[in-house]
Each structure stands twice: as C-alpha cells, then as structure tokens.
Amino acid sequence: MNRLLVTGARGMLGSALVAAVPAGPDAPDVLAFDRDRLDLCRPAEVLDVIRQEKPDAVVNCAGWTAVDDAEAREAAALAVNGAGVRALALACADVGARLFQISTDYVFDGTATTPYPEDAPTGPVNAYGRTKLAGERAVLELLPATGYVVRTAWLYGAGGRNFVRTMIALERTRDTVEVVDDQFGQPTWTGDLAARLLRLAEIDAPPGVYHATSGGRASWYELAREVFTLLGADPGRVRPVPTGAVPRPATRPGYGVLGHDGWARAGLPPIRHWRDALRAAWPELAGGTG
What we know:
The chain has helices at 12-20, 43-53, 67-72, 74-95, 127-142, 163-173, 190-202, 220-230, 263-266, 274-286; strands spanning 3-7, 29-33, 57-60, 98-104, 147-152, 155-156, 177-180, 184-185, 188-189, 208-211, 218-219, 238-241. By secondary structure, it is of the alpha/beta class. The protein has a single domain, classed as Rossmann fold (3-Layer(aba) Sandwich). Strand 4 (98-104), helix 5 (127-142) and strand 5 form a beta-alpha-beta unit. InterPro entries: dTDP_dehydrorham_reduct, NAD(P)-bd_dom_sf, RmlD-like-bd.
C-alpha cells in the first residue's frame, strides 16, 4: 500500500488513524480529508477526489454519528451513511481501491445473549443503525472483492467527545453519577482500532465483515466505575440505573457484544481486553493521572 486516503480525518477515529501511521521511507502517503475537502453527500466531488488522488486504500471514518438526532432526521443521516458510502464505494471501484467502511454494533437488534458473529442476521432498532446498515450493504454489493466492513462500538479516545472523557469530567464536578447498568457492549480505544485498520490495509486480508471491538464485555456502569478507579476516586460514587431512567429519542440495543472469529481469516488475533486497552489509553485520556 503506497497511498492511504482517510475520510473524516479530523474526527476522533480519523485523527487517531492519521496519527498512527508510522514515519519512515516505507510508510504510505497519507491523504487526510475532512468534510470541507470531501463531502460524501456530493457524489461528483467524491468521484473527482478519488480519481485525482488514486489511493490504494480508503478508510471511511466520516459519517453521521449523532444517534438521537438521526431519529428525527433519518433522511439526512441516510444521505451520509447510506448514499454517501455508496458514492464512495463506486469511486473506489472506479480506481481499483480497497474500501474499509467503519460500521457499528447498532446494525443488530440487541436481543442476543451471546456475542454476535460477523454473519449474524442484522435488525437495527433505530434510525442510526438502519442508515449504517445501508452503507454496509453498498460496500459489500459494489466491492465484493475489495470491500471491508469493520464494525466497532463504544469508541473512546483523546480526539473527541466520548463516554470515558465525559466520566472523567463528571468525576471532577459531581458527588455522584448515575449510569445505565443494563446495556452491554465492548469499550474500544481508537488507538487499538486505528492500529488494526492499518494492519488490515497493509496485508492481503480477505474482504468482508470484521468485528473490531475490544475483548470482554461491560455495561456503561462497569465502564464508569473503572474510569473512577483509574482516577483514584471512589467507584461507589457511580450509581446504577436502568435504561428507562434515562429516556433517549433513539432506542439503544440492550446487548451489543460482538464476536471476533472473523480475524482468523486474516491471520490476526482479536483486539485485547477492554480493561487492558483502557489502561494503555489512560495517559492520553487523563494526562497519566490516577
């Protein structure tokens, strides 16, 4: 891989991905595009940029990520997460580039009791999940030999708003914090995901669906307690509440734990356990305190 194009390069994952590319003569040229330079809602612009830059691989970190806003503006979210991804896939097909599309556990209904395998039936319960599923289908349909759907979940990192950074801020400003304890997923560090995406782009991995989340599982409540513990604070200040106590416009799947068997196809191990990842990420999240 000589040329890597990253969309959404100023977002939390995009910025982590750009930063993770190693320096040196063998490193790929990184083409970092934000929305001002590459708007997925403008298909002609997308095609022009991809034809001009001729990347070997594209990692699409751009997307509509406001889950609750998507409930009221599904058409607008679909224009980015569905039609926009289709335009990008068509452009990649035009120049022969591989496309790595970032997706989500929200394509599932959340009723499972064991981790969802990569080939599990989908069934999103909110608008955001439906729009992301449309993007997945576009990639797999248009790029059967060069398309990759990389599902992740519960992302956190230093480069944007996320649950872990919110808990760090709340620990400093509130005596107690109420956190949902009946939604389960896999907290995933952007640093780990960025490294895995780069590795996938470097090797001749089989196309298809991959689940790129940390190992283990946690509730939001358990994650919040771990953050407090790492801060040196009393985790008892985190109080568990049911989902119904925190009403949101968009329904959240109760169970979003993903299976990782697909990595064997690429000859790669699954991403490490979420607790280990959080500790590795801690210096960039909280300045090494705790």
